[in-house]
Design brief:
Length: 492
């Protein structure tokens, strides 16, 4: 050991000039990057070594790439703090493809038989339709297809392969949920900072460039945290509130129940300061779904006793109307009195006239962001969809929308069937929460395009594969195991 240490010391002395030269070169390159590019250069100086380490880790363990992808999905909203048009969305797609490539390279330890799962075939049907949509003769600019096909079907398909074949464990699922709750808690705090302390310069600039039109109403700010917009932020906060409430009901340890309840309260107020009224329907749809899926009259009665007074106060009283956030939540239950909702109905009537002879839609990439960028004079780009399903209707037609809704229904029914077959209590409670949240997000996507936005899309795509294949992690309860052992002994 002493000889080895001495040898290493001598080697360092012999090559000291080389290491010193290398250090000087690195310092000069870092100085040039920072001097030329400023903050971006500093980030590059720090980011390149980190990126190389992450790259090696992804090739060694593909699951690591998936976890990095999840975390970066939450950070993508910070692009408003980076000057210029940085294509971080494309960077995330590259990371996802890299993780998929690593999965193939590590193919010997992957369970490729999992690709026979019914949920994967549902995704293949939808993917095939979106690929055929590339040849839609109505599309004014075909390359725009790629920009929306990613959120429509490609990302979901790639994530499905990674989640299905990788050796994911219960511990991995726990880490996914922990990261989800952690980022959601930070997002709520950031929303409070915007609402009660003030906005950063980059956020003020974002509002001045057009965001104020939808995020400052009657002089009140709709907090958007570090998400793409307030609609995305509010819907995500409502979904995580639902997860925390279900974990509160399902846990038996009082310390954990108190922690989940406190977290639910913080994140729910994050939803409130977003001013996103329609996000309430994540809870209205998801909470009853959870109660029904429990198939327990006691749980259903307890859930109704908790929810009924809250709904009665919102529907039949004006308690709390002096608080702007509570007033906004209450107006979600009276959509026919909302001017913006009526405008949406008028827009949908115009679209109905336009699409009546276009069963396959105007082509993927003709509305919303890609439409405004590549074909701004096209009719489909003139009317804001204001809804994930309306956007699908515009771009893929009534045929595409029907296939997509059938796929969502199939995923939900598969999830219900698989969860009801489980024996492991922890797995049952976790998959119930993920399934109920998925239902809530699917419902609220009628009013917000959140199913195609980071980070909701990332989380929903992953959880949909988890609860539709949850039997992979099921373990029998102690009583079931003992009964099986007794039966085996009797047969012997």
């Amino acid at each position: 050991m002493l000889e080895r240490t001495t040898s290493l010391t001598n080697q360092w002395r012999d090559n000291q000039w080389l290491y010193s030269l290398l250090g000087v070169l690195i310092a000069l390159i870092a100085g040039w990057l920072i001097g030329t590019w400023g903050v971006v250069g500093a980030l590059m100086t720090l980011g390149v070594p980190v990126a190389l380490i992450v790259l090696v880790c992804i090739f060694v363990e593909p699951k690591f790439g998936l976890l990095v992808y999840v975390n970066l999905s939450f950070l993508i909203g910070f692009t408003r703090f980076i000057p210029g048009d940085t294509p971080l969305g494309l960077g995330l797609d590259g990371l996802l493809m890299l993780t998929l490539f690593s999965t193939v390279l590590n193919g010997k330890r992957m369970d490729w038989k999992q690709l026979r799962q019914p949920v994967f075939w549902l995704l293949i049907v939808w993917l095939t339709y979106t690929i055929l949509e590339y040849f839609n003769p109505e599309a004014p600019y075909r390359p725009a297809w790629f920009y929306h096909a990613r959120s429509f079907s490609l990302s979901w398909f790639y994530i499905a392969i990674i989640v299905l074949v990788n050796p994911i464990t219960k511990e991995d699922i726990k880490w996914l949920v922990r990261m989800w709750l952690f980022w959601s808690f930070l997002a709520a705090l950031w929303g409070f900072k915007q609402q009660y302390i003030g906005l950063a310069a980059a956020e003020d600039r974002w509002l001045a460039e057009g965001g104020a039109r939808t995020h400052i109403l009657w002089g009140q700010l709709r907090s958007f945290s570090f998400y793409s917009d307030a609609g995305q932020f509010g819907s995500e906060m409502a979904g995580v509130t639902l997860i925390c409430l279900i974990r509160f009901f399902e846990n038996k340890a009082w310390l954990r129940r108190i922690a989940y309840l406190a977290l639910a309260a913080v994140i729910f107020w994050g939803y409130a300061v977003s001013g996103t009224r329609s996000a309430l329907f994540v809870l209205i749809a998801g909470y009853p779904s959870y109660l029904i899926l429990k198939r327990n009259p006691v749980h259903i009665l307890r859930g109704v006793m908790v929810a009924a007074p809250v709904m009665a106060i919102l529907l039949f009283t004006h308690i709390g109307d002096s608080n702007y956030q509570i007033y906004r939540i209450r107006t979600a239950l009276r959509p026919t009195q909302d001017a913006s909702f009526l405008v949406r109905l008028e827009n949908q009537q115009k679209l109905r006239e336009y699409l009546k002879d276009k069963p396959f839609g105007a082509g993927i990439g003709t509305s919303s962001g890609a439409g405004a960028r590549f074909s701004p004079d096209h009719f489909a780009a003139q009317i804001p969809p204001d809804s994930w399903y309306v956007q699908l209707w515009i771009e893929t037609g009534v045929v595409g929308l029907s296939i997509y809704l059938a796929m969502l229904l199939g995923i939900i029914l598969l999830g219900v069937y698989k969860v009801w077959q489980l024996k492991d209590p922890w797995l049952i409670s976790m998959m119930l929460a993920l399934l109920a949240e998925f239902i809530g997000i699917a419902v609220v996507s009628y009013s917000n395009p959140i199913l195609g936005q980071f980070p909701t899309s990332t989380v929903v795509f992953i959880t949909s594969i988890l609860f539709t294949t949850c039997e992979r992690w099921d373990t029998p309860t102690a009583s079931t195991a003992s009964n099986k052992n007794l039966t085996s002994k009797m047969l012997v």
